[in-house]
Design goal:
The chain is built from three helices and eleven strands. The chain has about 230 residues and is α+β, with helices and mostly antiparallel strands. It folds into two domains: about 50 residues, no CATH class; about 170 residues, Alpha-Beta Complex (Nucleoside Triphosphate Pyrophosphohydrolase). A hairpin with a 2-residue loop joins strand 4 and strand 5. The chain is globular, with a radius of gyration of 20 Å. The relative contact order is 0.17.
């Protein structure tokens, strides 16, 4: 689809990291100078923009499903998100009734440099599923669930890629090990019916964007395949 407007291309003229390498080992803020090219061939003046890169940029989002009591359910996990706590320190124009310290989310994990191609993506899904839920699957259990999406393109060029797999026995799992950090200590999973999960998105019990999108994509898949 051709985008509306006169923008043909945007290029980076200059990219400079903000801070020393010791300070930016995981997240790096970049000061960019960019320039627009318009459809008539003219160019804008250069202008400043800021963006963030992460050590591993993209992520796989894992939509696990199971049939529980004749109802299709989706697997969610508790995720501690310390940056949310910064909201408690601000005088927000639209204040929250309560800022959560943890969210219900779909399992997910960063795609590492060695995770090349589709096999690498599915292999990362296997590892993250075991780490975050305790379920032991193989690459062939997974399939893609729609196209990847940008989450916050005004800040970070991260793309999230969705995959799905079916769990045949929800009781056949080990305790989730997490990644060893205190931010994942104490996390566990819960199975929620897809219809209930959709209502939780609508009423604000689920407020993580990737999780809502994954649930809605699953619901669409279930309708199209008449599961």
């Amino acid at each position: 689809m051709k985008l509306p407007g006169r923008i043909q291309d945007v290029e980076i003229i200059d990219k400079q990291p903000v801070g020393s390498p010791e300070e930016t080992s995981y997240l790096t803020l970049y000061s960019l100078r960019v320039q627009n090219t318009y459809t008539d061939g003219t160019k804008s003046d250069g202008y400043r923009y800021e963006g963030v890169l992460r050590k591993w940029l993209d992520a796989v989002v894992i939509v696990l499903t199971a049939n529980i009591d004749d109802k299709v359910c989706v697997c969610l996990r508790t995720s501690i998100r310390p940056p949310l706590l910064l909201r408690r320190t601000l005088d927000l124009p639209q204040p929250d009734s309560a800022t959560p310290c943890a969210l219900l989310e779909l399992p997910a994990g960063l795609i590492e440099d060695s995770d090349k191609g589709e096999a690498g993506l599915m292999g990362r899904a296997v590892l993250e599923t075991l780490e975050e839920t305790g379920y032991s699957l193989v690459e062939a259990d997974f399939s893609t669930l729609g196209a990847g999406v940008f989450v916050s393109p005004g800040v970070i060029p991260e793309k999230m890629l969705f995959v799905t797999a079916w769990i045949r026995d929800i009781d056949n799992r080990s305790a989730p090990e997490g990644d060893g950090s205190l931010a994942e200590e104490g996390s566990d999973i819960v199975w929620v019916g897809v219809d209930e999960a959709l209502k939780m998105c609508d009423n604000g019990e689920i407020v993580d964007m990737k999780t809502e999108l994954g649930i809605r994509r699953l619901a669409t898949l279930l309708v199209s395949t008449e599961i």
